[in-house]
Amino acid sequence: MLVKALTGSKKYWVWVIFLLVLVAIGLACYLWQLQKGLTITGMSRDVSWGLYIGQFTFLVGVAASAVMVVLPYYLHNVKAFGRITILGEFLAVAALIMCLLFIIVDLGKPMRLLNMIFYPTPNSILFWDMIVLNGYLLLNIIAGWHALEAEYKAVPPPAWTKILVYISIPWAVSIHTVTAFLYAGLPGRHYWLTAIMAARFLASAFASGPALLILLSYIIKRVSKFDPGREAIQKLAAIVTYATIISVFFVGLEIFTAFYSQVPAHGMSSIIYLFAGLDGHGKLVPWMWTFAILAVLALVLLINPATRTRDTYLQAACAAVFISMWIEKGIGLVIGGFIPNPFERVTEYVPTLPETLIALGVWATGFLILTFLYKIAIAVKEETV
Amino acid sequence: MKTSRRNFLKASGACLLGLTLWPAVKGFAGNSTEYNTSSKALAGKKWGLVIDMKKCWPKYQEGCRKCFLACQRAHNIPDIANKEEEIKWIWTEPYENAFPDGEHEYIPEIIKGKPFIVLCNHCENPPCVRVCPTKATFKRRDGIVMMDYHRCIGCRYCMAACPYGARSFNFSDPRPFIKEVNPEFPTREKGVVEKCNFCAERVDTGQLPACVEACPAEALIFGDLEDPNSGIRKILASRYTVQRKPELGTRPSVYYLI
């Protein structure tokens, strides 16, 4: 089946080559980073995680799209999702590979990565994150590939893959929970020290992942003969709606706790920094207000059935959800946690050009994998339609 | 028995996975490695430090920076001008920044804005050790929180976890920034985290930490917190001392006399 990724129209190859160019630029910048060290990034002693870890955090959420189609399909027998479960699983595969790559590019000593396995440390959340991310990746590759192979051969998928699918449902919850725990249990990082961190991660994940899946479904419908189906898209839209409402509600909870209590150690300074600026520093203020406006706009479009059921409005709403959640989790959450620093001072962070190009290269790698996987899946589906 | 190429590949894959996981199994099942120290080593169950700021300030005002310099020389600390990528083991912060929760607008002039010596607190319950995924940072039996520069993968999780800003990361190669290399102590390379080690290498050979030894005012008092007859315990028993951010539950081993 793999060979199906190697045949395609001219447009397909233009897209693949475009991604390959981005990958090559990112790789070149990464080689430079390997030689010079992380000094080529905008990170500092105070803001020691930046764009890379932010992207990783956000993309763990995108991997959730799989469970949001797998769970209704397998546990509640929602037939409409049968057509797109494979798309969800393959999106999870691509997102997880991006997550792992973002962790690797962030390491100061990537050649020592296997120390995580040679000296396993169960008291470190990062150890468990490695287990759950790689486990979820394997589950989705195996279950997704077997399901597609079965469809290709027009036979039912092997029975044991169903067990993997059932395991993958709680496992999906674990990747978000464990990733949230990376942040949630740290003394002195007030913005992250919140019991609803895992709940926030799950909510924003179930909004951004399915939102991307809806957008991808529309693209697939346009560029191929395979139609993911209006019913599936509308059901996903309902999931995105609820998840976005809960996500915005959770952000509101954080703001209430911080400001009504007036306890500085509940993240008040970080929230002030993010939304209004602190000590004359406010580089993230326009970003955070973009998040707020896009989230509200998305909610208006999603909650109103007249707009949610219209293709163009739904596409706009999904784009708004995806971008706003990307800002909130991919930028605000990680950087906001480091500001102010342990000495109550503000050191701002701006990614550098090579850092941005490396991040773009990782995104391009993920989309390249996604393109190949979707190409194969759609080719199989076009044949069976 | 006939083996197809497919089955052969499957079996090889399984073997490879097993080989990869074996060290992990050993890690969980094995005992932690013990270490030996020299017979000359200072005996102590839990090392701590008292910093008497009243003794320090007059000298500090005169320009005394002997503790910083002694530390810098002993540990090959690079002198990096870029504040964002500085390597700091021991330095000063104004009272309001070192003790952000101990500040109010009417604090006495005698401490307002005054420099306080800060360093790694060698916490009894260190968050950095808890989060490190490779045990590159670990706590010794005598309470010293250590860094293994050769095991660190540079994930900087410990920097996110430390509530005292005590950890520095080598964003670039530090060697060109070392003024005078001390061959007795390793230099570091780019991509690893480092911090104050309470001069474990000196304690283990019967010497006091370099900063303590260098202080002309005897403002730094190093000793065993578990020994009721130690000098440090006598000070703690007789004078009121404060710790940085005690409310976080990290239980710092560095105490301040104001």
From TrEMBL, chain A:
Q: How does it sit in the membrane?
A: Multi-pass membrane protein
Please give the start and end residues of each transmembrane region.
12-33, 53-74, 86-105, 125-143, 163-185, 191-216, 236-260, 284-304, 316-338, 358-380
Identify the domain of life. Bacteria
Identify the GO cellular component terms for this protein. Answer: plasma membrane
Localization: Cell membrane
Q: Which PROSITE patterns match?
A: PROKAR_LIPOPROTEIN
Q: Which Pfam families match?
A: NrfD
Q: Does the keyword Transmembrane helix apply?
A: yes
**Is Plastid found in the keyword set?**
no
Q: Which InterPro entries match?
A: DsrP-like, NrfD-like
- State the UniProt keywords alphabetically: Cell membrane, Membrane, Transmembrane, Transmembrane helix
Name the family: Belongs to the NrfD family.
Which PANTHER family did the record assign? POLYSULPHIDE REDUCTASE NRFD, PTHR43044
* The protein, known as: Polysulfide reductase, NrfD
Organism of derivation: Neomoorella glycerini
UniProtKB/TrEMBL annotation, chain B:
State its Enzyme Commission number(s).
1.97.-.-
Question: Residue span of the signal peptide, if any?
Answer: 1-26
A Pfam family cross-referenced in the UniProt record is Fer4_11
Domain of life, per the record? Bacteria
Q: What class of enzyme is it?
A: oxidoreductase
Show the GO MF annotations.
4 iron, 4 sulfur cluster binding; metal ion binding; oxidoreductase activity
Q: Domain 4Fe-4S ferredoxin-type spans what residues?
A: 143-172
Alphabetized UniProt keyword annotations: 4Fe-4S, Iron, Iron-sulfur, Metal-binding, Oxidoreductase, Signal
Which PROSITE patterns does the annotation name? Answer: 4FE4S_FER_1, 4FE4S_FER_2, TAT
Q: Could you tell me which PANTHER family the record lists for this protein?
A: PROTEIN NRFC, PROTEIN NRFC HOMOLOG
Listed name of the protein: Menaquinone reductase, iron-sulfur cluster-binding subunit
Instruction: Give the gene that encodes this protein.
Output: qrcC_1
